[in-house]
Amino acid sequence: MTPYAVLAAVLAALCASPALAAPSPATDGKALFAAKGCQACHGEAGAKPIAGSPVIAGQNAIYLARQMTEIADGTRTSAPVKVMKPIIEKTTPDERKALAEWLSTQKPADPQTGDKAKAEQGAELFDENGCIGCHGADGLKPLADYPFLAAQRKDYLMIQIKAIRDEIRSTRRTRMMTANVRKFSDAQVEQVAEFLSQTKRK
Ligand code: HEC
Ligand code: HEC
């Protein structure tokens, strides 16, 4: 074989190898999740977050992508988002889409254990305050592009409901529900969060 023929054979073998056929990192959500360090706070495959961080596994893909963009561009403001702003700022729209799509296919978190009596009161509040209209019965069947709430972390839910109530997390879409949560006391917020965090995702 001439040196040229050897080179051509190597090139042909490389092009046929799975390494090159694999999706590019920009469209591989799983690889991006590892490379960008998301796991440090959101846990393995987005389902085992540390205190204060949300479960993002099994969440609606369009909702996830929108949150990433709104955190990156500063539309979604509240104290806790500041920790992830510097990370998500360095992703492109295509990378965020790939991350969101991969995360949406991952297994949601298991329900948490908590105070049963508070959860029962929370279930009533969830029914009586019209949450079902947009998030579905028990937070299990949201309208298109809206978030699932069932089996989300209790502490994260409490931070968000209070931030939406107090208009700290205040975007065009969160303002649609401000009236529903406005009258909640902190104790009622906790009851709703107990209920949702203890509800199993189907
Ligand atoms: C340093 C910890 C940290 C890292 C690293 C991190 N996040 Fe977050 N993330 C958070 C916290 C905390 C929140 C909730 C902020 C709040 O309370 O508003 C959040 C919120 C989110 C949300 C919104 C979820 C919802 O239900 O609204 C998405 C989506 C998200 N992160 C995706 C990612 C992705 C993808 C990465 C990697 C590129 C990442 N995060 C890296 C801490 C982190
Ligand atoms: C009119 C529709 C509507 C109603 C009613 C509604 N929500 Fe929402 N809710 C939304 C939308 C839309 C979002 C996502 C906002 C965004 O995309 O930034 C949201 C977000 C949330 C979040 C944040 C989820 C996350 O992952 O960060 C929580 C918690 C929540 N709603 C709880 C409730 C509760 C509790 C009630 C009833 C008291 C309620 N919502 C009523 C539309 C609604």
From TrEMBL:
The keyword Electron transport applies. Keywords: Electron transport, Heme, Iron, Metal-binding, Signal, Transport. Residues 24-107, 117-200 form the Cytochrome c domain. Residues 1-21 form the signal peptide. InterPro entries: Cyt_c-like_dom, Cyt_c-like_dom_sf, Cytochrome_c_Oxidase_Subunit. The keyword Flavoprotein does not apply. PROSITE patterns: CYTC. GO terms for molecular function: electron transfer activity; heme binding; metal ion binding. It comes from the Bacteria. Pfam families: Cytochrom_C (PF00034). This is Cytochrome C4. It comes from Paramagnetospirillum magneticum (strain ATCC 700264 / AMB-1) (Magnetospirillum magneticum).
